[in-house]
From TrEMBL:
Belongs to the class-I pyridoxal-phosphate-dependent aminotransferase family. PANTHER family: AMINOTRANSFERASE (PTHR42858), LD15494P (PTHR42858:SF1). This is Aminotransferase, putative. Its cofactor is pyridoxal 5'-phosphate. It comes from Deinococcus gobiensis (strain DSM 21396 / JCM 16679 / CGMCC 1.7299 / I-0). Coiled coil: none annotated. Residues 13-370 form the Aminotransferase class I/classII large domain. It comes from the Bacteria. Keywords: Aminotransferase, Pyridoxal phosphate, Transferase. Homodimer. SUPFAM superfamilies: PLP-dependent transferases. InterPro entries: Aminotransferase_I/II_large, PyrdxlP-dep_Trfase, PyrdxlP-dep_Trfase_major, PyrdxlP-dep_Trfase_small. Pfam families: Aminotran_1_2 (PF00155).
């Protein structure tokens, strides 16, 4: 059998470590209608090498979409179409850092971003979180000591913890960047997937300072296979990105895919689809959290997320997620162990669970299986 998707699931195992929606949730009909709309136009320019910053019509539609979603002004002149957040991070590293430079990251953080930074030979320095997000008091000390080129943050419904950076700390982070001349790289892919209390304004509000690049992705709000996203930043910063050799050689990223997304925006389809995602993920988060409440007598703890995909579980005292995982797989459930998200190996007492992929009954069963595994390892 030829493989077509990145994730391979194990039969009989509920894979709560998977960080994406199921095939059944993907917008096949919406994409089909948008493609028909795009190809029905008498303009084949989206089949040509694309403009380096991305198609201007797509950027204009995206600016209007983000202005409504973020509740603040967004201009197409401040938007750059990227090949998703992963490619955006690679591009930022290539154009704004050199080997040996320092990037400060949250501990814990998105584990695959760590691979991107290491691939560019950057010195990765961890900074701790609390229930309000990145601790700015510790970060200020780290900035003074390490003089970073980048500070990478996932400020809203953070992966993996689900925490959201408070409004005051966002302001403090921007001021710190201005004082020490580093770039805040804000991975805001979950900001539009809020189904609880509204978060503080996106870091997009601060791109005019020239110290902030706000990243977004259609992978989270539409379909992972689009492999398209955006960078919101000051035009001078975006112009630097456009001079990258890969961009100059091949033009903007996936004009064909961008043309289809442009039609989704013009037709208003993306907003209605996104509203459905919020309802579904909000329901699934509630189901999983209610099931996990049954495990609290065993000593687990967690905070119910207000958006995004994940629940960050604190395990009972003395239990390490790496040791629990093989027992959990024997019981028919899998999760991501905490230290996978930690550059310093400080998160072994935690586990990340994702509720995006499974239906409610499967989430309940997954939590029950996790409970059986915990009872086997507890003293």
């Amino acid at each position: 059998m030829l493989k077509t998707a990145q994730t391979t699931l194990t039969a009989g195992v509920i894979e709560l470590g998977v960080g994406h929606p199921s095939l059944e949730m993907l917008p096949l009909n919406e994409m089909r209608e948008a493609a028909a709309h795009r190809f029905a136009q008498a303009d084949p320019s989206f089949l040509q090498y694309g403009a380096e910053w991305g198609d201007g019509h797509l950027r204009r539609e995206l600016a209007a979409f983000l202005a409504r979603g973020y509740g603040l002004p967004v201009h197409e002149s401040d938007l750059f179409i990227s090949g998703g957040v992963s490619q955006a991070l690679g591009l930022i590293c290539e154009m704004f850092t050199r080997p040996g430079d320092t990037v400060i990251v949250e501990d814990p953080t998105y584990f695959l971003a760590l691979d991107i930074f290491r691939d560019h030979d950057l010195n990765v320095v961890p900074a701790p979180l609390d229930d309000q997000g990145l601790r700015l008091d510790v970060l200020a000390e780290l900035v003074a000591r390490h003089r970073p080129r980048l500070v990478y943050t996932i400020p809203t419904h953070q992966n993996p913890t689900g925490t959201t950076l408070s409004a005051g700390r966002r302001e403090d982070l921007v001021r710190l960047a201005q004082a020490h001349d580093f770039l805040v790289v804000a991975d805001e892919v979950y900001h539009l997937l809020t189904y609880g209390a509204p978060p503080p304004p996106a870091f997009s509000a601060h791109v005019g300072t020239g110290q902030v690049l706000s990243l977004g992705s259609f992978s989270k709000i539409l379909a992972p296979g689009t492999r398209l996203g955006w960078i919101h930043g000051h035009p001078e910063r975006l112009d630097t990105l456009a001079r990258n050799g890969v961009v100059a050689s091949g033009g903007g990223f996936s004009p064909l895919g961008g043309g289809v997304i442009r039609s989704l925006l013009e037709l208003g389809t993306l907003e209605s689809y996104l509203a459905g995602l919020r309802r579904t993920f909000g329901e699934r988060a509630g189901v999983l959290c209610r099931a996990l409440d049954e495990l609290r007598p065993l000593g687990v703890d967690f905070t119910r997320p207000g958006g995004g995909y994940f629940v960050w579980l604190t395990l009972p005292p003395g239990v390490q997620s790496a040791e629990l995982l093989p027992v959990a797989v024997e019981e028919g459930v899998r999760f991501q162990p905490g230290n996978r998200f930690s550059p310093a190996g400080t998160q072994g007492a935690h586990a990340r669970l994702c509720f995006a992929y499974y239906e409610p009954d499967e989430l309940r069963e997954g939590a029950a299986r996790l409970g059986r595994a915990l009872r086997r390892v507890l003293p």
